[in-house]
Design a protein that fits this description.
Elements (H helix, E strand, L loop, with lengths): L8 E8 L1 H11 L3 H12 L3 E4 H8 L3 H9 L4 E2 L3 H13 L14 H13 L5 E8 L19 H7 L3 E3 L1 H11 L1
Parallel strand pairs: 1-2, 1-4, 2-3, 4-5
């Protein structure tokens, strides 16, 4: 809901995981309007991608790599605040981060950026931060399996962040046309 004057404007901010960008590239490459919509969100500071997601993407998909080069404004460098949140996530969710993984693991950085944005005041705007991911919520097993790994939605839930699929943005984009 947008309002004028001294009233707050309510907007969503989106932090995108690698899985959602890959999903979008599979289904939406042939819909240039969707990619233009994502670019517009980025131009309006409503769509963000952690630096680690861009590193993961560069190894997976040339289409998205090229799109990110044209829309590099949405890529957010890791800062001290995100690093502190990352450390908190690592301490509170030790199985979420695979420290033995050879390639970059952007998942905790997605949560760190989203959490930072959710706590950052923006003048005249009250923003809900939505994490875009294709992962499903997985609750811990009853048997306390030490090999269980939480997925992004589980950690989002712990930090009171919303999560949705990239299809949510496609539906939103279709409503704005």
């Amino acid at each position: 809901m947008l309002t004028a004057g001294n009233k707050k404007i309510y907007e969503n901010l989106y932090v995108c995981d690698t899985s959602s960008l890959v999903e979008a590239s599979i289904w939406y490459k042939r819909i240039p309007g969707f990619w233009n919509f994502l670019s517009e969100l980025g131009d309006n500071n409503k769509l963000f991608i952690p630096k680690m997601v861009s590193i993961e993407i560069k190894k997976k998909d040339d289409f998205i790599k090229n799109w990110l080069e044209k829309n590099n404004k949405i890529i957010k460098e890791i800062d001290e605040s995100q690093q502190k949140i990352f450390n908190q996530i690592k301490d509170e969710n030790p199985n979420f981060i695979d420290l033995n993984r050879q390639d970059p693991n952007a998942d905790p950085w997605v949560i760190a950026l989203a959490y930072k944005l959710s706590k950052s005041p923006r003048i005249d705007i009250e923003a809900k931060v939505v994490v875009l991911t294709e992962e499903s919520l997985n609750e811990p097993p009853q048997n306390n399996d030490p090999n269980w790994r939480p997925k992004i939605p589980y950690v989002c839930k712990k930090y009171k962040l919303q999560w949705k699929s990239i299809k949510y943005l496609l539906d939103l984009e279709n409503k704005t046309i």
